[in-house]
Amino acid sequence: MAGHSKWAGIKHKKAIVDSRRGKLFTKLARAITVAAKEGGGDVVGNAALGLAVQKAKDASMPKDNIERAIAKGTGAGADADTMEAVMYEGYGPGGVAMLVEAFTDNRNRTGSEIRHAFAKHGGNLGEPGSVAYLFDKKGVVVVDGEKYSEDDLMPALDAGAEDIVLEDDVYEILCEPSDLTAMRAALVDAGIEVVESQVMQRPKTLVPLDEDGAIKLMKLIDTLEDLDDTDTVHANFDVDAEILERVAG
């Protein structure tokens, strides 16, 4: 999975130094609002909300912003929110399976924007269930590989970690989603600085792409990620790490 892991590493490092913080905070706030709307405003009792809030804290989102997003979701704020989570499924260039997680207050608008992005960049939007079976939902904690060694991460194994992957100086520590909070806590208690923690869709199989295919796919991914309603894009491609570095650069 070198090429795919390389992509994950590049994305995580980009998150560390992301200069588009205003747009990032908007996306994080939407995730918090939807989690609070669906499961209530108790961070301890609502696991999805707890993960969304932790992700926001990892990105240094101000406490006031987080509290406003929770209030908006529960209806305790000035206006109750109509935001909801939606998953879109489709195929990109080269037959790459793609999942697009979005938060929207207008399904028609978001669906139209995502469909247009797929069509413009050589892909096509599919029906619900068309590609989701090709992914496993996993918890992931991201740690800076330049600061720590794999031995430093051993506390994660006792807390449910299934695998530790290093790519592009970034560690991805994988677990079942239900173990994510405990695994993160074990690392923090051991003095490990966590870059981010989240639930992700990890591909079961990978589709190889050449450089031309990788360029086309990255244009589609960039377009999807730039949409205001898009939260996360997952794709099951594999590209040679050197090619991917050139394309992503």
From TrEMBL:
Main subcellular localisation: cytoplasm
A Gene Ontology term for the protein's cellular component: cytosol
MF terms (GO), sorted A to Z: DNA binding
Keyword rRNA-binding: no
Gene Ontology BP term (one): regulation of DNA-templated transcription
Residue span(s) of domain TACO1/YebC-like second and third: 83-237
Pfam family membership, one: Transcrip_reg
Segments forming domain TACO1/YebC-like N-terminal: 5-75
The keyword 4Fe-4S belongs to this UniProt entry's keyword annotation: no
Keywords assigned: Cytoplasm, DNA-binding, Transcription, Transcription regulation
PANTHER family named in the record: TRANSCRIPTIONAL REGULATORY PROTEIN YEBC-RELATED, TRANSLATIONAL ACTIVATOR OF CYTOCHROME C OXIDASE 1
Family that this chain belongs to: Belongs to the TACO1 family.
Entry protein name: Probable transcriptional regulatory protein OM076_25475
Lineage, opening ranks: Bacteria, Bacillati, Actinomycetota, Thermoleophilia, Solirubrobacterales
